[in-house]
Specification:
It contains 13 helices and nine strands. The chain is an alpha/beta fold and 396 residues long. The chain has two domains: 227 residues, TIM Barrel; 84 residues, Muramoyl-pentapeptide Carboxypeptidase, domain 1 (Orthogonal Bundle), CATH 1.10.101. Strands 1, 2, 3, 4, 5, 6, 7, 8 and 9 form a nine-stranded mixed beta sheet that branches. β8, α9 and β9 form a beta-alpha-beta unit. The longest helix is centred in the N-terminal third of the chain and has 38 residues. The relative contact order is 0.11.
Length: 396
């Protein structure tokens, strides 16, 4: 081999390790950047175990005491009442939040809302955020049945004050099908809450833990928000059921659970809801969805229509599953290669949820809407609940 050939061969041999070294360096830098991005992502404020506090004076009396006891019990967060309707509760103060944070425990504010003055309720919610809350929980129940315009106004005004990304949580009835006139589609729709914390008080409802979980998850699944079930320690449910609740939450891949409420939890209940729970895990949950067909009415129909409209299908957003809605479903099914039944069921919901929902400005009318979609309150707004599965817990 000539001298030039030897030099070329040596260069090739040196280039291979150098290229490998450069690739390894790029990989390390990429992984470091990915890790930095992950570290910058906001923590999940509902992850882990939490307890609801209605009255600070009955739950330790001070932020220092609550934080210390929460940390000792292994709680990751406490949810403290910050408002009732248009009235702010002064117990939710920056000093309280700082003291609980000092113990390594997160603090979310929760406000009970009625829908009579959504602008004032939005200001009350925003004030809790300004006080340092890690998230804001909207406790909306029977008073909000049928109030689509109020829910829309509240969410829009609240988001304007707290920003589009601040963590919002809806805590409401667990059995969606019992409440066809409740505006889940507003509270959990575009611009609304990123998290869903159904009040799954199985003992008050009178269902077995397994039945309550199956019902709740099936009918909340279409709203496509992570579920963080709220259990009960009030009314002395059996400790075995408290442990079952935790097992079923884990089986359903819930990242966190919370309990109503701190001041009604006995020492034996604290042990049941915070100590490591063993035992046989429940069977894997199914991924079932509710079925909607022509003639149905209610908020699930509103939500399905919003998804269809957002996907470009010709459908009114009325809460009535009429002929136009059926034809839109058939068109979606044809596009997705599904049997064209016109029924929204197990096979159709996943494809429907791939669509970006149309946002409805229920509280806007006339020229003020500036060409955006405006709808009258849907037919579902006049539908009464089929049952009241949650008697109001003490202290609401």
């Amino acid at each position: 081999m000539s001298g030039a050939g030897k030099r070329t061969a040596v260069a090739r041999l040196g280039a291979a390790p150098l290229a490998a070294l450069l690739l390894a360096l790029v990989s390390v830098l990429t992984q470091a950047a990915d890790a930095e991005r992950q570290d910058d992502s906001p923590p999940d404020p509902l992850a882990g175990d939490a307890s609801w506090i209605w009255n600070v004076s009955s739950s330790g009396g001070s932020g220092e005491t609550i934080g210390r006891r929460a940390a000792k019990r292994g709680l990751d967060a406490v949810f403290v009442k910050s408002g009732d309707g248009g009235n702010y509760w002064s117990q939710f103060s920056p000093g309280l939040v700082d003291a609980i944070h000092a113990a390594g425990v997160d603090v979310c504010a929760w406000q009970f809302v009625y829908g009579n003055d959504p602008a004032k309720e939005a200001r009350v919610g925003a004030r809790a955020v300004d006080a340092g809350a890690d998230c804001l929980i909207i406790d909306a129940e029977s008073d909000y049945e049928g109030k689509y315009a109020s829910a829309d106004a509240y969410i829009r005004k609240l988001r304007k004050r707290i920003g589009a990304d601040f963590p919002l949580v809806l805590a409401s009835f667990p059995y969606v099908d019992y409440h066809p006139g409740f505006p889940y589609s507003v509270f959990l729709g575009p611009g609304g809450a990123q998290y869903n914390a159904p009040q799954l008080y199985w003992f008050d409802i009178g269902d077995k833990v397994a039945t309550a979980f199956a019902h709740t998850y099936t009918f909340n699944r279409p709203y496509d928000r992570p579920l963080y079930p709220v259990g009960q320690t009030y009314d002395n449910p059996p400790r075995r059921q408290l442990k079952d609740f935790r097992r079923y939450a884990r089986a359903n891949d819930a990242n966190g659970v919370s309990w109503w409420s701190w001041q009604e939890t006995s020492g034996r209940e604290w042990r049941a809801i915070t100590k490591r729970v063993g035992g046989r895990a429940p069977a894997s949950p199914d991924d079932s969805y509710p079925e909607l067909a022509r003639g149905d009415r209610g908020d699930l129909v509103v939500w399905a229509q919003q998804l269809l409209a957002g996907g470009g299908y010709d459908v009114p957003i009325s809460g009535r599953f009429n002929g136009r809605t059926e034809r839109a479903v058939v068109a979606l099914q044809a596009d997705a290669g599904l049997p064209a039944s016109g029924v929204i069921g197990e096979g159709t919901w996943p494809d429907l949820l791939e669509l970006k929902p149309e946002r409805v400005y229920w509280s806007r009318r006339g020229k003020g809407a500036r060409g955006r979609l405006v709808a009258d309150a849907p037919a579902t707004a006049k539908l009464p609940p089929s049952a009241d599965e949650i008697p109001s817990p003490p202290g609401r």
